[in-house]
Every structure is written in structure tokens, then in C-alpha cells.
Amino acid sequence: MKRFVSFASLVTAVWLVCALAGCAEVARQSVPVSIPPATCAATDQDQYVYDPRRLQVVQSCIHVTGIVEAVEIEPDGDANLFLRPDPQYRDLLTPASIQYEQGNLVIEPVCVGQPVQSNVMLLCAGDPDPFTGSFPAAGTHVWMEGRYVLDLHHEGHAELHPLYRMGTLSS
User: Fold this and answer.
1) Mean pLDDT of the residues in the chain
2) What does the radius of gyration of the chain's CA atoms come to, in whole angstroms?
3) Which residues are registered as beta bridge partners of 165?
4) What is the chain written as a DSSP string?
5) Sign of the C-alpha dihedral, residues 136, 140, 146, 149?
6) What's the CATH number for 2-168?
7) For the stretch 18-30, what's the b/e string if a residue is b when 16 or more beta carbons lie within 10 angstroms of its beta carbon?
8) Is the pLDDT of residue 152 over 70?
9) Could you give phi then psi for residue 53, rounded to 5 degrees?
10) In the chain, what are the domain boundaries?
11) What's the pLDDT at 31?
């Protein structure tokens, strides 16, 4: 637990510095190259999504590959990874994904940072095993697995929310 507190404090400090400096992206070190599992399997992270009623579940677990465009830490403690899907996964994008997310699939690992929104502090505090891996840098080719949803509070753009697991692909 001590390691998570240090990581959460670091993420919060970086987020605050970025918020004060006006920057939108947070650089993270790359995750190691790995081979995706043969089948997609959900984790316990679904229960730590705040206000799940806003998400329309399309598929409980999917696998996708693509290029990371950017990574941001949000005030709700979630990270937003913007993924440019490889051609075989572009059909996952909705018109809202094209119009509002610049053709990216939004990937949201939940409770990765200390939330500053009071309505999710308790929720994230109860997560015994939040995603603690590092995020890949922009330009990295990755595989990701998560629950495929449409965010009804954001014009119906497509997301993996929450992210279950990910890794990098060799170039």
C-alpha cells in the first residue's frame, strides 16, 4: 500500500503542476513489450467506474491494437489514453469519436491517480488493486483490453472503460 500512496502522490503532484502550467499531456515511461493473452478477461475494475449509468456497454471485453496519441490524467482519478486504432479496429469508432476525439478511441484505466472530485474519492479509496502499470509514451504501438462502451455524457464517443490490461507491441 505504501508504494501506491507514493505513486498516487506523484500522479497528483504531476497533475497539479500540469494544471497550473496549462499543459494537457503527461508523459509516462513505456510499458515493456508483451504478448496479449489468448482471450479477453474482465477484471474487478468495473465496480470502480463512477456513475456507470452514463456508459452503454456494447461488449464486456474486447481486444484492440493501435498507436497511443496522448495520455492525460483526469480530476476523477482516471487516466485518458487516446488510441489511434489500427485499421482492423477503426470500426469501433463512432461519429462522436471522429468529431470530438479526433478519430481516437478513449481508453480509461480507473483510479490511477488521487481524485480531486469529491464524488469519486471514496470509490477510488476502496479499490484494492488499481491499475499501477506505467503508460506508454505517445507514438507507441500497443494492445489493450477492456470493456467497450459508449459514453452517453460525451456525445456517445467510444471507449474502453475500464482498461483491464495492456502491453506494447514490437515494431
Assistant:
1) 82
2) 15
3) 145
4) -HHHHHHHHHHHHHHHHHHHHT------PPPPB-PPPSS----GGGGG-SSGGGEEEEEEEEEEEEEEEEEEE-TTS-EEEEEEE-GGGGGG--HHHHHHSTT-EEE--SS-S---SHHHHHHHHT-SS---SPPPPTT-EEEEEEEEEEETTTTTEEEEEEEEEEEE---
5) positive
6) 2.40.50
7) eeeeeeeebebee
8) yes
9) -65, -20
10) 2-168
11) 52
| CA-closest candidate to residue 132, choices 83, 169, 165 | 165
Decide if 77 contacts 110 (C-beta within 8 A): yes
Cβ proximity of 145 and 165 under 8 Å: yes
Residues 139, 70, 20: CA angle, nearest 5 degrees? 140
pLDDT in tens, 96-130: 999 999 999 999 999 998 889 888 999 999 999 88
Q: What is the DSSP code string of 3-28? A: HHHHHHHHHHHHHHHHHHHT------
Nine-digit cell string for 31: 510499458
Task: Give mean pLDDT, residues 12-22.
Answer: 38
